[in-house]
Amino acid sequence: MSAEEAFSPQSSLGYQVNHLARLLAAALRERIEPLGVVPGQFAQLLVLYEQDGLTQGELCARVHVEQPTMANTLARMQRDGLIDRVPDPHDKRRSLVMLTARARALRGDLVAAARAVNATATRGLGTAEATVLMSTINAAITNLSSDTDHLAHPPDHP
Q1: Which of 33, 42, 120, 151 is deepest in the core (most CB within 10 A)?
Q2: CA geometry: angle at 58 spanning 41 and 72, to 5°?
Q3: d(CA 139, CA 135)
Q4: Do the Cβ atoms of 115 and 73 come closer than 8 Å?
């Protein structure tokens, strides 16, 4: 068997996880778009549901996206009536991202939509299998995050 044959999309973790992510996003989109929310806004909303009033930089760190991407997403969310930006009372140079009443009212429906997508994705798996799946995914994320951090911040060489 040649190297090309041994590495197919079906045997590639990256390909399979990417395919799964696209399917999850499409299923989520189908459920939340009627509410005026798109999957690209969902992670920000979840983080703000946990802690409202974060800065754009804090959101970037928690959602793991770059500043330009976050700026575009927040502009759309503000346009869509999901967030407001208010001056930080402790540092007038910064703005805090605050959920609107509309966004807070959507929380139950958005969480229900995500739970429904997750239930569909794990249909047929027992609780133990679903737990192992999440643990395995979290381990892979941790492995790649630490590897990427190492590559982004190599040690100084004398």
Answers
A1: 42
A2: 40
A3: 6
A4: no
